[in-house]
Write a structure and sequence with these properties.
Elements lengths: L7 E4 L8 H16 L5 H20 L5 H15 L6 H14 L10 H8 L4 E6 L3 H10 L8 E4 H4 L6 H11 L6 E5 L2 H9 L4 E5 L11 E3 L10
Parallel strand pairs: 1-2, 1-4, 2-3, 4-5, 5-6
């Protein structure tokens, strides 16, 4: 499948361009050392990653707020390991996590190369459910902010992907329309179904090679975007 007549490309940030899991692990390594948290990092991450994903779904569905997300994903992970941490320390770790996370800036393999390829051909944009303060730091510190004409986050739009309003907000901010635009992201529900439901074409960054419908455009490596754009 090759997309033609597109002028604007919208990317998700975390898990699509910015290697969230790798950077998150490095962040926890640094702050656990700072706070003297005596847990095995890999065992902690084994619990934390699915717990974090679970709470992000609740956050995306407006069932919890961001403070509850930040606290519970840590507290539940420590509880799962039967490791006691005072609430005040959990709060400190939570604050430091948000502060340290944008300082680690590994991108997915091929990210810079494909952005260099797309930049002269299209207007590039970001649509992210992440917190504004954190996402701004990630874009700046990883030296990719200059590729993007606009950045839409859920705090600006007042809703989160897959809510149609965030896509409408992003299109208006970019001064473009659905027919001329394309969404690229790793979350099938938030990025792909969210975009398709508002009439926006989408490409699934299918890093883990999930089984998806045959009518869904997908790439397994970012470099493959050159073959369809």
């Amino acid at each position: 499948m090759r997309f033609t007549n597109k002028t604007d490309i919208f990317f998700d940030l975390d898990h699509t361009l910015w290697d969230f899991e790798r950077n998150s692990a490095l962040t926890f390594e640094a702050i656990f050392q700072k706070h003297g948290i005596g847990v095995n990092l890999q065992e902690f991450l084994k619990h934390y990653v699915p717990i974090n994903q679970y709470y992000w779904v609740l956050y995306r569905e407006e069932k919890i707020g961001h403070q509850e997300l930040r606290y519970k994903r840590l507290k539940d992970s420590f509880d799962r390991m039967s490791y006691t941490v005072e609430d005040a320390t959990v709060d400190l770790i939570s604050d430091d996590y948000i502060r340290y996370l944008p300082t680690f800036n590994h991108l997915f393999d091929g990210a810079i190369d494909v952005l260099d390829y797309l930049k002269p051909k299209y207007n590039l944009h970001i649509i992210t459910n992440g917190f504004q303060e954190v996402q701004t730091g990630k874009l700046r510190n990883s030296n990719i902010a200059h590729y993007f004409a606009t950045v839409t986050n859920s705090e600006m739009a007042g809703v989160k992907k897959p809510n149609p309003k965030i896509f409408e907000y992003a299109l208006n901010l970019a001064k473009t329309d659905r027919a001329s635009s394309l969404m690229i992201g790793d979350s099938f529900e938030a990025d792909i179904e969210g975009a398709l439901n508002v009439g926006l074409d989408a490409v699934f960054f299918n890093e883990f090679k999930m089984e998806v419908r045959k009518d869904i455009a997908q790439v397994f490596h970012l470099s493959e975007l050159k073959n369809i754009l």
